[in-house]
Amino acid sequence: MKILLAKAFRLLILSSAVIGVALSTATAQTKAVPATQNQVILSYAPLVKDTAPAVVNIFTAKTVRSSRRVPLFDDPFFRRFFGDNALRAVPGPKRKVQNSLGSGVIISADGLVVTNYHVLEGAEEIKVVLNDRREFNAKVLGKDERTDIAVLRLDLRDEQLPFLRLSDSDKVEVGDLVLAIGNPFGVGQTVTSGIVSALARRSSISDLNSFIQTDAAINPGNSGGALVDVQGRLIGVNTAIFSKTGASHGIGFAIPANMVERVVTSLVISGNVVRPWLGAKGQGVSADIAESLGMSRPYGVMITNIYPGGPAERSGLGVGDVLLSINGKEIRDGQDLRFKVATLDARGTARLGVMRRGGQKQLTINLEAPPEKPARNETLLRGRNPFQGAVAANLSPKLADELGLEHEKTGVIILAIDRKGNASRLGFERGDIVLNLNGEPIKTVRDLLGMLSNGTPTAWIIRIERDGKESNIVIR
What we know:
The chain is an alpha+beta fold.
């Protein structure tokens, strides 16, 4: 027994020595850029050294008016007692400079920076500070509120800057390791790690949302910062968090790199974003529709309407077809289709995977910018009628795109409302679409003006569409 214990003791000492040598050897090894995912698990330091220098801090300043009015002076009883002259003793609105901060990513060596639209909103002065403390003035090349993307050009002094390459975000998978780099709360550049928690997440920010969700900590100030993969490529631009307190709860969202690339390219070339137009409208395939069509699972978009003479009609797409994929990428539903189309070149072509009468086929569609037909004909409505004080216009694919609506919507839309007019008093809102007036369809502003000039009826029966829902308004 003693012999066995002695042998065991010697074996334990030998094993400890071997482990100690292995640990000391591993510690002595020089850190290098990881070649495999297994090596990344040991340390993110080489990855951070390669990527962090391309992530910048953005400082903005704008002049705002701050009211110094005492709230009590707005009370009718107070004003009646003391009179309006009391307000004259109160200094008026005071101008002050409001500073804010955010993050951005350098995406080219010549100083092209991508960030969020909301980081630059209203900015009068912009300063970009690199991780090595170099400072640059910046010029705004373009902004796209709908996708929350903006592009800056740094005022360089013959310098070459570090930058990150955009990755194909369609290849990102749930579970991929990622780093979020930015300047949260203004504490300085910060790196957090996590995984891709989900893909194609939606929110109320825009109808073109298809966010990458991550549990890497993202906080205020991270907006416009980088979400990078373990190869050091930019897979997304951090833009929003889901939080009830303003702090990170492990649910952060990034704009996919494919959308970033499309918007940046348009803004750099023309200063605005031109999105492709299909000229077709449809509904997502539900479980019931999929079963009736003999599909193994519900996905894709069933075409319900084709715009006459549009790209879809010219490609051979028809009502009843199910659009399954675009350029080989599966379409989940209608919003996913809008996102994928928005990442394409408005002057290019696309391959459509279509199911028709149980069989599948491929179609080629020539994409184009949405046309402004009919012309918008913006008109201020006057006279003794319910629409007095409203500005109306003809809906076209182009105007619908500008307003973030489905391209195929038609009719007359209210663009603005005078608060003192009848339209405001009766509860009409910006974005209402007038469909019918006293039993007559309203297709153009001219139709609406003709109906309003026919005299004053005993009742106005108006059918409108608001937020995708139709309702009747009766005014007597």
